[in-house]
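ugh ok fine here u go
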Amino acid sequence: MTRLISMQEFRALFEDDAEFAVLDPRESSDFATGHLLAASNLPLSRLAATIGQAVPQTGTLCVLTDNGGGEAASAGEQLLRLGYDRLAILDGGVAAWEAAGGSVFSGTGVPAKAFGEFVRKVSATPVMNAVDLYRRQQRNDDILLIDARSAEQHESYCIPGAVSYPGTELVYRVLPVVNADTEIVVHCGDRSRSIIGAQTLIEAGCSNVFALENGTMGWQSESLELEHGNRESLPLPESRSLILTRAIADQWAERWHINRIDSIAVHARRSRYLIDVRSREEFEAGHIPGTLHIPGGHLLQNVDHYLAVRNSVIVLIDSDWVRAVTTAVWLRRMGWRRVYVFTIESGHEPLETGNGDQLEAPQPCNFDPNNHADHDLLMRENRAYLEWEIALIDRPPGDPAAPYMEI
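structure:
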């Protein structure tokens, strides 16, 4: 049976340790017009296909919300038929939340982007603008330019000369090859992955590290050309070159209370996400059955999409443990409390090959100039997007869904 949940009772959920999910079943375009920071968007049209991986246990409390269109009630009926028996509809939905003083957010991927702005503010992450980077490149300065997005996005378009190191691969792949005099500039499409990537390297002990201000959008705004078809990346590091990075990962794990687990139990009391953060090639060569392949940087960028159940258990799987720990640290700093690491040992687990289980990936905002015939319109869209993202820094404080950790 589906009941109403009051604003007071809803807010109290964030102060407890019991697991729950906040689901907004509107279509993505409606969700983007205004939603709660805590909400995961599971459109009604795909709810039956996605709920099993989004909310693994049917006994989890699911709070449904909409903006008066009736989608929450329809979702409740679907979920009841699917066996979910703890359902509640937020009384008054998005409008009532806003009327009670809560923040309503437009756009998508808000939790990660808001967190990126938070990190930039509290850590004072150094930035470099596009013009300065271009001038350094023209002088042939010693610069390692890193694209922290996915390999697919990197190949589609990037800043000329960039090398692909998806987000949480940075410490794992960069530290073994960089020298102390090299300037490192991290870019993404806009801001958040540049900031998190640069700050990761800074906290690993690198100097002369910068986040490229406004990413490829900032580059385009200066009428500078992007590169297409770039597949440049570095191979996986050899074991003997990982001594330093493993030591850093050990320090981070101790500081942020990241524990290694020795086995993955078949049954779990809490909802649990088993996520393999290695590269696609490593995953397909051999992975634990039932795990999802989500590279660490992509997971951080889309936590609201992949981690719908709050107070759940997250197990990050790696062949080493550097990438998993790097990912786990940032999840802890975003407020996720139960994050563990499991390392695949040679011959330790029966592995399967191939694609494995797949989740539908969220569609990124399309700012690829190849797909925009009107350059001026693209620049206006870029500016509007950046203004929206930068403004997020003033919104999450006080929101129960943003328990960021500053230390």
